[in-house]
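Working notes for the structural subgroup meeting. M.R. asked for a predicted model of this chain before we commit to crystallization trials. I am recording the input and output together here so anyone reviewing the notebook later can reproduce the run.

Input as submitted:
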Amino acid sequence: MLFGKISRQFCGLKKLPRSRDSRYFWGWLNAVFNKVDHERIRDVGPDRAASEWLLRCGAVVRYHGQERWQKDYNHLPTGPLDKYKIQAIDATDSCIMSIGFDHMGLQHVEKIRLCKCHYIEDDCLKRLSQLENLQKSMLEMEIISCGNITDKGIIALHHLRNLKYLFLSDLPGVKEKEKIVQAFKTSLPSLELKLDLK
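Returned structure, recorded in token form:
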């Protein structure tokens, strides 16, 4: 009898739509994956800690001197901490977000690909472009189908002073193509800028 009363009370409660519940759960889980452990960075070094973060979030990395992409978290290379330096990051369909960017104290990253990264926003690009190490090392960047990016985020990339190639595609928040082209012609005249925007 008591069980029947309790179950009727629960049934009478309004539930959130199922998709909304799962969206909150995945957002919470992705935030957990992006949490920065500064002790871990100190213990294993920035490249190993960043590799762990990126692979945990679904991205892949390539190290200097290697042709193959590191995709499997459980097969991250071991050995001397200075041996494996991240050269390239492909964050296609990953859940990386701004709170994880403290992992980006990397000195040797030359290429970053952000494709279908739903949590990447203008502030993320601004943070990336303000990291001194990346200002020196970044040569190529691709930003594709990241719906939260606007003109403001793209223009912030002009701080990456050694950037040679920038590809932008399917960014509905980017509205002023000509303004972007002019900003980069002025700040980075040798940049090869490719736009596939509507």
